[in-house]
Amino acid sequence: MQERKHQTSEDRGSKMEDRRAGTDEIQLTVKNGKISLDSLMGGATQASASAGGALHVPAKKPAQPSAPGSSGFVPLTSITHRPASTVNFDAIRERLAKMQGKQYWRSIEELADAPAFQEYVSREFPRQAPASWQALDRRDFLKLMGASLALAGLAGCAYQPAEQIIPYVEQPEQLIPGKPLFYASAMTLGGYAQGILTESQMGRPVKIEGNPDHPAVKGRTDVWMQATLYSLYDPDRSQNTLEQGVVSTWDSFVGMLTVPGDNGKSFLDTLHATGGAGLRILTETVTSPTLADQLTRLLAAFPAAKWHQYEPVNYDGARAGSRMAFGVDVDPIYHFDKAKRIVSLDSNFLLDLPGHVRYAADYISGRKVNKSSTEADLNRLYVVESTTTITGMMADHRLPMKASQVEGFARALAGQLGVAGVNGQTIPAAQSWLAPLVKDLQAHHGACLIVPGEFQPPIVHALAHAMNQALGAVGTTVDYVTPVAARPEEQTTSLSSLISDIKAGTVKTLLILGGNPVHNTPADLNLGDALVGAGGDPKKNPNRPLTIHLGTHYDETAALSDWHIPEAHTLEAWGDARAYDGTVSIIQPLVRPLYEEVRTPYEVLSAFLGEGSRPSYDIVRGYWESRHSPAPANAPLAAQQAAASAFDKYWQKVLHDGVMPNTAARPATVTVKANFAAAAAPVPAADNGWEVVFRPDHGVWDGRYANNGWLQELPRPLTNVSWDGVAIISPASAEQIGVANEHLIEVAHNGKKVSAPVWIMPGQPDGSVTLQLGFGRTRAGKIGTDTGSYNAYQVRTSKAPWFDAIDKPATTGERYWLATTQHHHAIDTGTPKELDNTYERGLIQHTTITEFMKGHYGAEEGEEEKNPNLFPNEWPSDTQNPAPGEHIEPKHEGPNARLPITSAQVGGKDVRGNNEHSLAKYPEQVPLYGEYQWGMAIDIHSCIGCNACILGCQSENNIPVVGKTEVARGREMHWLRVDTYYQGSLENPATYFQPRPCMHCEKAPCELVCPVEATSHSAEGINEQTYNRCIGTKYCSNNCPYKVRRFNFLQYSDQETPQIKLMKNPDVTVRSRGVMEKCTYCIQRVSEARIQAEKEERPIRDGEIVTACAQACPTDAIVFGNINDPNSRVSKLKVQPHNYGMLTELNTKPRTTYLARVFNPNPDIPSEGAKEHKGAETAAPASSQNLDARRKEIG
Amino acid sequence: MAKKARAINASAQAASAGTLTAPGGTGIVPAPGHAAPPVPVGDEETFAIIEPGHTYGSISQKISEIILHGNLWTGWLVGLAMTVSLLLLMLTALSMVILQGVGMWGINIPVGWGFDIISFVWWIGIGHAGTLISAILLLFHQNWRTSINRFAEAMTIFAVMCAGMYPLLHLGRHQYAYWMFPVPNTMQLWPQFRSPLIWDVFAVSTYFTVSATFWYVGLIPDLATLRDRATNRFAKIIYGVFALGWRGSAKHWHRYTAIYLLLAAISTPLVLSVHSVISFDFSVGIVPGWHSTIFPPYFVAGAIFAGFAFVLILAIPMRALCNLRDVITMKHLENCGKVMLATGMVVFYGYLMELFMGYFSRNTYEQYMTTNRMVGPYGPSYWALFFCNGFAPQILWFRKMRTNIPCLFIVSLIVSVGMFLERFVIIVVSLHRDYLPAAWGMYYPTFWDWAQFIGSIGLFSTLFLLFVRVLPSISMAEVRELVHHEGHTAGAGEVAYEEAETSGDGQTTGSNLKPRPAQA
Fold first, then answer.
1. Interface pTM (ipTM) of the complex?
2. What is the DSSP letter of A535?
3. CB of B179 within 8 A of CB of B195?
4. Out of 3.40.50.720, 3.40.50.740, 1.10.287.180, 1.20.1630.10, which CATH number does the structure's domain B56-484 have?
5. Which of A240, A465, B65, B346 has the most CB atoms within 10 Å of its CB?
6. For residue B433, which residues of chain A lie inside 8 Å, CB to CB?
7. What pTM was estimated for this model as a whole?
């Protein structure tokens, strides 16, 4: 990123103040469909003579005569450049029904663009407001959406794309076609900001990276950051303001609020008169200072109004826990990089906590391994957890335990650590653990960290705080700060009071700003139920408030609302938000809103504050200007100008950097109350019962990304299931219920039940069923509607939002097919384990740090015996190898230049020696010529399996989404996959993640067999795929031992939908049907750097080229660079003793190599099998995980 | 079968009564169409190469009768209707694949080749028997080949046509199939000659060209006979054009014999090379289960094995329906059975050797591949393969079974299925679990896979039925020669010599010339 300077939106010109006035912006607006939708709806077809005065619309039917004077054909007078014509809405309607073809839409576009017609609609529509509540059924809704989508596509269907229609009379400053610009901004997940750096090509955001200056991400990303791009271009996004489901406008909405009605009072007047009684505002977690300020002002203006926050994935437990422990609200900020011993009490801090990207980076930075690493260099992670998470899989010691038992464990640990007032319970399962753990922690006083599970009850958090205090962690590995959220509160309580108010009929106006509470509120506090009422008919519910919904999609909530206002995406709107540590980022738009009607929460609140249609930019900038030491109003003009100018500079810098300096939350000095634990009686842990655990899905999160194709198709960490939620159970539980993978089980809770497909996960606690939130959406869009097997919210209650006891799930006897990207059907094989020698393949190598220090780097002892080189000594040994440790400068050395890593030796031993069983037999490596030879090292020790690399690659390389059916057929297109391997017992195996891109083999088997030379080796060692030469024989894929090639079996790439077309990265070819594709090491980035370097007459610097996967990776597990340069990062990794190649016995000479995983187990804890490394074993493939269960099923 | 066929049969039997006493006969052969030739046909099957009692005339009469004077038999029409339906199915499947993409099939990653390449190899293999019979057996002076070489060659050509369709169809981008040919082009790019797929292109196209030429050259004398015997003017013209002015002069025969031998010599190495090259598609790859040096001989043997099975599948109904039991005798069937037995043993050896080498190699991947074949998800296909190609043909050790027509027919069908399974096991079962367990997958053929394969059988059968109807499915010229040869050995040759016939238009045709001496 060093070379990629990022800019602010303001750099581009000064006219961004009014986003609708930004004429220097590239016009990207997809035409709003509202006008023609009107004609579809039939609501606005009754023309009157006064309507616009210019365009006449004949009566729809003779039976419905239009206003007097409108019959007959009136020539157009005001639009002189158009031929006089009339518009036949019946014909349009008819044609719309059969919508297809370019010319057809072009004619409608002309119609839709007619200014007179627009005026007619905007003037006419308010009077056409439907009289009564009209619930759209799904069919009508889809028709509407289809039509609006088609209309949205107008620009794309025209002969020229919209962005070229406005010519560059004056080329915008800095904008050079083909040169990307980078802008710092932020996106939020659960309210917390994550800094992004968005690549913009010709005004289109095409790729999202992490902002290196942002404390929450430090330049790295997670899947949601990557995928937010897809959400921007989601064709199903809401594009119109709807009133009662009928197309309206923002102006109408503002008019509704401010225009006096029959009694001479406007809506707001009435509201003011009552002090806002009956007004309720429901938001998600708010960290935005501007929004908080607006809300505060609103609540001041309407004292009787109330503001509620609800987010399905909230941190109520942590909130209550800090109150329990300290008596005040504080947020803990962890410093994993400073911790030597970490205990996670059911926390998935690598993926579920705000700030998880930073936490992942910090955690891994505390355990990076190189050849001189010793035990002291590595942190040690203990995880107690109630379901299988990637955090647990990264642990040195992992203890699966039911969620309800974690409290007991925490009490036991706290008791032994000497936390006052806690009675140590006895946890039989953890007996062998506790004493060594306590000893280990106490030995590292001041460098320990206890992380309470974000979804654990308050007492666990309180205990963790107490333990951290007892261990001297406060101030070193954990800091407490004032809460980042604008108004910290327990959201479930807040929601509960809202729902009861609605049911009581005291809520008159409900303003929902973002979110989809009708879908994601708990079953016992369901907003949808409250709105629909007891009668089952929302129209007849007397307690139904006037509901106004701001949302990105016409979703479940929008369908039950009176007004739906489309929400602007974070990449097209102004805003601000705070990160997990409180740092403020200004969200700046990268593109003009794709749809004109979209609004932000700021604008909606502004309208309620009586400020009319104030643009977000004014609101956000205005707020910060007022905070930035403004000159007093009575100050002289010069002082005011100076203040304004100073603010301008400050604002520019904030926008440029993407973070506002010195805005991190204030540290709070707190001490744990004595006897805090007394308040919470120890919960007797039910040992034998069953429990259900709810977790956010690691694709669609709480359901908000349900219509995001990238996230839906993303193989979920560990399960590798895409497109569906599953019920995760342990092998023993499966046996007990009598089910196998894909069998449906019924999970009953709180009187309701859902049928969920089983996914058997080794390592899941027995008797525990994990369900994921976010599936089973009924109104999400083409991708998300009815996708996913079940809706977990139906059985989730407010009292036990994260886990609860249930009855033993029963099998329904039915089967539900799941699409997975790994071991598609391998679990069904029934291959006897003893005949299955896949364990011997040496794909995953791992060791412990103590073994590592002794020189055992992960290869299995005697592996060479078992798996000898398949191609024994072909060549005589090369006597000209350099001496040990000697490096030959590769540059300009001519043909005799040798790759140093092939001959360098470490510690008197061949660098590959111990673990490189086969290449050692090739004394002579293929010499690498030239200046640059690209290669990659992937550290599976650092890979946390978060899958960010997959989406980084998908976004960068225009990889299409293929859908569940195709994934199930084994045709997913991801160029990079993260394979999961297990080792050890079914109850608690070690788990390994292995990202698998193309290996770019020196002797690539694919290159040999292509009949048309479509795949070939570049001079710089990249195995290149020439798409336009490929004829699609698939031979290369068959012959690829790593199976990293992907084939376009059908026309996967969407080349029709205009929004999706805008999303494409212009640097990468969009592949068509019948073409093979694969990882290119992001060759477009290589070329870009090369061109830049050549222009500047210098060599390409190390680190100048970062592949998309490496850039996305939160833990730096992927390193790319020039392996001909001994000083490059990648070369330095490749000479590490635990570097190994995959399947090197095939003599493919892969350029992508791996670094073995190194555990740091506590020697006093009895091994769980996995980390018992005496020369270590190689891991079993995941495919064998369920063989036992499966075999039992087969009989 | 049709009434007409029964009529021929009946008249033939009636006629045969009068000639039984005097084999070879001295009487003048009736003009064509007037009465059936004196063909001695009994209920008993014969082990002679050709039923005794045939004359040149009777041969020409009998074989040309099928084409020239048979009406459209109901059975043939019904058969054609069925095969054309299958052909239409194939055309639908083919259009679907071209319009929608090869994703209509069940192929995926890791199994990039499925029924397409299985069918390709299967059809190519079937083709091999024809060339073996017509070329190698000719060079080896196996006289018994004469009766079956024509239709076996036709089988080759049609099978290669069916096979040739698949490499084109399996491409992701069909429109660029020509890039596999070394066509001079503006891109200045040539095929990549290291790829076995390019070798395939040359092997298969050479094979088709040579086979078609060989077949056509062999047809010329017969086309002349048909020209002379045809009564329909249109048929006369067509046959006449394709007979290339053949008059049966000694010069013609001389050149004909030379070119025929030459083509046989060219064809002979093709029998071995084509399937060896096909096997390189696999053995050059590094997939466990593909990368094996035994593949070329084992594929060639398998091809001949499958081809002879297919010859039997075609010959057994044909000789019954067209009343050719006297020409395609039990001797031929038995010989086919023997060849199947022999090549089947080679194939079986190949299977056992793969098994052995799987373990002997101590190569993890080979070992797993072998295990997976036996007990993996496709295990049943492997055992079915063993049954079909390994065990079922063993019954042919018994002469009684070898000469039992239903038994031969059933074994042939089993072997054809087995050869399909063999390619399934090699291609799909090897690919679906190769090196990386994380990349393993399954392959399930879709409706379009089956439609394409079954439809290609329709294409083959349609072509074959049309061939049977318009061209002599048994080489008249060569069988006449055979009659001469057999006459010599049976002492009836001189009778044949005296026979002469004048065709309707008085022209001298090949059929009334004195037979050339049997090739030394």
1. 0.85
2. T
3. no
4. 1.20.1630.10
5. A465
6. 826
7. 0.81
